Structure formats: C-alpha cells, structure tokens
Amino acid sequence: MEENKDFLNECISITNTTIDKVFKIDSNDEQEKQILGAYLFGMFNGLGHEKNSTPVEIQGAMIQVANEKLKCSLESDNAKLCYKKQ
C-alpha cells in the first residue's frame, strides 16, 4: 500500500512540474487537456513499469490527476471520450 502512495505522489509531482514549467494549459481548452492527459498517461505508464506498479494503480493515478489537476469530471461528455473502455 505504501508503494502505491509513493507511485501516486511521484505522478502528482510529475504533473505539477509538467504543468508549472513545461506545458501551460488553458483550463477551458478541452483539446489541450486531452493532449496533456495523453502525455501524462504515457509518463505514468513508463514510471509504473519501472516501479512494477499494476495497471490499476497506473489508471487510478491518471484518473486522480485528471480530476484534481486537469479539472476533468468522469461525468462530462469529454471524459467519456477519454476514458471509454477498450
């Protein structure tokens, strides 16, 4: 459980660094949020493989970041496109 918290904290740190220093987004531009979300998900996937995290941990971190940092709601029409089951 502690490893899961460490993984989530690293994902949040990556997100903060990316948003603050690398990629400034317009919080009203859904396309920018989708692009950043895809980029972050790729980074979380790589980190998850390094840390031997489960796919559920990686997806959970992405959902939390999408909700908290990118202000996406799972109930929004946009989120249904981003998070549709494969």
Topology:
Elements: H1 2-22, H2 30-50, H3 55-68, H4 77-82
Helix pairs in contact: 1-2, 1-3, 2-3
InterPro entries: Imm48
Pfam families: Imm48
Task: List descriptors.
mainly alpha, 86 residues, single chain, Imm48, 4 helices
**Unreliable segments (pLDDT under 50, ≥5 consecutive)?**
none
What class, by secondary structure content?
A: mainly alpha
Shape: globular
Number of continuous helical runs: 4
> How would a textbook summarize the main sheet?
none
Question: How many discrete domains?
Answer: 1
What share of the residues does DSSP label as strand, in percent?
Answer: under 5%
**Order of helical and strand elements:** HHHH
InterPro entries: Imm48
Pfam family, one: Imm48
Polypeptide structure, described:
Helices cover 72% and strands 0% of the residues. It has 86 residues and is mainly alpha-helical. The chain starts with a helix and ends with a helix. The model has no long low-confidence stretch (mean pLDDT 83). It has one domain. Helix 1 packs across helix 2, helix 1 packs across helix 3 and helix 2 (30-50) packs antiparallel against helix 3. The chain contains 4 helices and no strands. InterPro entries: Imm48. It holds the Pfam family Imm48.
